[in-house]
Amino acid sequence: MSRVAHVNGTYLPHRHARVSIDDRGYQFADAVYEVIAIRGDRLIDAERHLDRLDRSLRELRMASPMSRVALRAVMDEVIRRNMVSDGIIYLQLSRAVAPRDHPFPAKARTQLVMTARRSRPEPEAWAREGVRVITQPEIRWARCDIKSTALLPNVLAKQMARESGAFEAWFVDRDGMVTEGSSTNAWIVDESGQLITRPPSDAILNGVTRQAVVDLARGEQLRLVERPFSLDEARAAREAFLTSTTANVMPVTMIDGHKVGQGGVGEFTRKLRQRYVEANAVSA
Ligand code: PDD
């Protein structure tokens, strides 16, 4: 079956779908996006993703191209046409197609591209055994809360991880504090059993999975503290894990070649992953 893409109201074979070379997303990364998981024919946390999309648009003063109801209808259609039961849907909205000039164009018609593809969750073995993380200097801009397509530092960091045989790279700022991963949020459990993750701010993307896991941790009465943590704390942690739409809750067993705790998957991580998987098997 060939894939289908949605481009500004038109459904096209994916391989024929095109945007203009004057698209500001292409020229300036003047664009925002969302990645939403589809599991068992259901979108996971779609409303939270669309809330964050609205926020990204607002922060960049970009108009929404359609109402949420209409957007959801297009999403459903893209998923239907691609026959995706398990995978992801990708939405990208750019400011406009206009001759290249830095300020916003007078007439800015938000461009919408949507694709969907089948994909499996990350291999269960990774979740069983945990993954490795390396660290990279935080070189991103000061508005990481906006989910923009300006991802070059993230791309470079992920490439470094790939070349090191690691799953992810965590950014560390000049004060030695971990901000987040190149496409995931970062969590640790300290020696006293406190679950620690950075609070939402302009230094990180407020992950939808992060938000869901915060709710689960509260429900489980875990001692959750939302505060920045340092690389030193991460290395001394009892457990570490990362969260994202595609990785769910993924145990981290090594940071920069040092074992986290005993080097195995910790009990908090195991429990939160299990709760997350259960929650998404029964509600979307
Ligand atoms: N990445 N931090 C960054 C920088 C991210 O790009 C992402 C998501 C996350 C986790 O957010 P969420 O839980 O909402 O997926 C944190 C997506 C998956 C991507 O760029 O492909």
Oligomer: single chain
Q: Tell me which ligands are bound.
A: N-(5'-phosphopyridoxyl)-D-alanine
- Rg measurement, Å: 19 Å
Q: What are the segments in which pLDDT stays under 50 over at least 5 consecutive residues?
A: none
Structural class, please? alpha+beta
Share of helix, binned: 25-40%
As a percent range, the share of strand residues is 25-35%
Q: Quick one: how many beta strands? A: 16
Give the termini distance in whole angstroms: 27 Å
Main sheet: strands, sense, barrel: 10 strands, mixed
Q: Would you tell me the overall average pLDDT? A: 96
SSE order: EEHEEHHEEHEHEEEEHEEHEEEH
Shape descriptor reads globular
Output the number of helix runs: 8
Overall description:
- This protein has 284 residues and is α+β, with helices and mostly antiparallel strands.
- It has eight helices and 16 strands.
- The chain has helices at 24-28, 46-59, 68-82, 124-129, 152-163, 208-219, 231-236, 267-282; strands at residues 4-7, 10-13, 31-39, 42-43, 87-94, 111-118, 131-137, 168-172, 177-181, 185-189, 195-197, 224-226, 229-230, 239-244, 248-255, 258-259.
- The strands form two sheets. Strands 7, 8, 9, 10, 11, 12, 13, 14, 15 and 16 form a ten-stranded mixed beta sheet that branches. Strands 2-1-6-5-3-4 form a six-stranded antiparallel beta sheet.
- The protein is globular.
- It binds N-(5'-phosphopyridoxyl)-D-alanine (PDD).
- The site of N-(5'-phosphopyridoxyl)-D-alanine has 15 residues, from helix 6 and strand 14.
- N-(5'-phosphopyridoxyl)-D-alanine is lined by residues 35, 154, 180, 183-185, 205, 207-210, 243-246.
